[in-house]
Amino acid sequence: xxxxxxxxxxxxxASYEELHARNIRITGEEPEYFAAYKAxxxxxxxxxxxxxxxxxxxxxxxxxxxxxxxLPQAQIDGFDPSRDSLGRIDGALLAQGVFTSDPGKLGSxxxxxxxxxxxxxxxxxxxxxxxxxxxxxxxPGGSLAIFEHNPANPLTRxxxxxxxxxxDAILLWPGEAKRYLERARLRPDCEYVxxxxxxxxxxxxxxxRLRWCPLGAQYVVTGSQL
Length: 226
Known about the structure:
Layout lengths: L5 H8 L2 H8 L7 H16 L5 E5 L5 H9 L4 E5 L3 H4 L4 H6 L2 E2 L9 E7 L7 H12 L2 E12 L4 H9 L11 H10 L2 E8 L24 E8 L1
Parallel strand pairs: 1-2, 1-4, 2-3, 4-5
Antiparallel strand pairs: 5-7, 6-7
């Protein structure tokens, strides 16, 4: 379903963190900051109801690692088509959950599924099928969160254009992501996140008040079952 298959992502597995760090240097932050940002958001939005969570498109496990830190009571599972990426996931994560490139090994009773910066690598005609398949793995009352790059932010568009592993990216607008959730019978809600670089760090305390503003570097669409 992805424009890049597992083998193509395999070619970036060893250098992913280095390439990612180079690509976001304009923000003054390291990749771990953004993984922690997402995990903190998920913990605030969904905790304490999450006992089992799926990181769909987990890559080398940066977000999964942060999710475990923020939700220590939860079992974190992960899926990614790149076996080389999965091979770089922390042993502690592997010991507490399932990380696989085989969808057949995933569960069907997740309290939450996170799809973080994955859909822009998926061909538009295949996106609805991916979202619907993931939603089918939610337990009753479960929630889905989709994080994506915001096409309305010029610095985001510049960063994506410079990124080696985003060369195939087709960014999607929040309305598109919301429609996928609606068609999968979820109630969608959209918030904008990541507004200030490190040198404006003092302003970050105001970010919760700006989640309505469509200029965040990323956005997150969440939905719970009807």
